[in-house]
C-alpha cells in the first residue's frame, strides 16, 4: 500500500473515531447565568435570568448563591412554557390575562440562599430563574448552571467528512 493510501486510511479511521467519541461520550459544561453584581427591585417588581440548554443535556444542576441585603424576595425556577405564561400574566401596560403557570421550584420570603438544585426530569430548551420582590429589595446573585451534554453537531460534522473521504477513496481506488 503506497504512503498516500495509508494516510487516507489513517484519516478515515481517525475522523470516524473522533465522531463516535463526540456523539457517544458526554462532556461536562457550565454556564454562569448571572455574574455577582447587585440588583435593586421595588415592591412587586421582578427580574429574571434565562439560559438555553442543549437538546441532549442531562444531570442539570443549578447552583444558587443569593445574598439579600435589604428586603425579601421570592425565587422561582421555570421552564420555557411556564416562563412564557408568566410573561403573559405580567404584561406591563397591556390587558393582563390570568393564565396559570406552574413553577418547578419556589422559595418565598428568602433573605439568604446557598443551594444546589438538581433538575430532574431535565429541562428542555430553556430554564428561567425569576426574582419577585415582596418589598423593596437589594440583593446579590451568583447563579451557575451545570450539566452534561453531547457535542452532536461536531460529531455529525466529522461523520460527513468521513463519508466524503470514503467516497473519494473508493472513487480513486475502483473507478479512476
In short:
This protein is an alpha+beta fold and about 180 residues long. It has helices at about 5-25, 80-90, 150-175; strands spanning about 25-40, 45-50, 55-70, 75-80, 105-110, 110-120, 125-135, 135-150.
Describe the model:
The protein is α+β, with helices and mostly antiparallel strands and 176 residues long. It has two domains: 1-25 and 150-176; 27-149, Sandwich (Jelly Rolls), CATH 2.60.120.380. The protein is built from three helices and eight strands, in the order αββββαββββα. The chain has helices at residues 3-24, 80-89, 152-175; strands at residues 27-41, 46-52, 57-70, 73-79, 105-110, 112-119, 126-133, 137-149. The strands form two sheets. Strands 1-8-3-6 form a four-stranded antiparallel β-sheet, with no helix packed on it. α1 runs antiparallel to α3. The longest helix is centred in the last third of the chain and has 24 residues, at 152-175. The relative contact order is 0.31. The mean pLDDT is 85.
Amino acid at each position: 500500500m503506497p504512503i498516500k493510501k495509508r494516510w487516507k486510511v489513517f484519516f478515515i479511521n481517525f475522523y470516524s473515531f473522533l465522531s463516535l467519541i463526540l456523539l457517544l461520550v458526554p462532556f461536562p459544561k457550565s454556564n454562569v447565568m448571572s455574574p455577582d453584581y447587585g440588583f435593586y427591585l421595588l415592591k412587586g417588581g421582578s427580574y429574571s435570568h434565562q439560559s438555553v440548554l442543549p437538546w441532549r443535556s442531562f444531570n442539570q444542576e443549578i447552583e444558587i448563591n443569593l445574598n439579600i441585603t435589604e428586603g425579601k424576595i421570592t425565587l422561582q425556577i421555570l421552564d420555557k412554557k411556564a416562563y412564557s405564561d408568566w410573561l403573559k400574566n405580567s404584561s406591563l401596560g397591556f390587558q393582563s390575562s390570568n393564565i396559570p403557570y406552574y413553577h418547578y421550584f419556589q422559595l418565598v420570603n428568602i433573605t439568604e440562599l446557598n443551594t444546589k438544585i438538581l433538575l430532574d426530569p431535565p429541562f428542555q430548551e430553556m430554564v428561567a430563574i425569576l426574582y419577585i420582590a415582596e418589598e423593596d429589595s437589594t440583593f446579590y446573585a451568583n447563579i451557575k448552571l451545570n450539566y452534561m451534554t453531547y457535542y452532536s453537531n461536531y460529531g455529525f460534522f466529522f461523520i460527513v467528512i468521513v463519508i466524503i473521504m470514503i467516497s473519494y477513496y473508493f472513487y480513486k481506488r475502483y473507478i479512476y
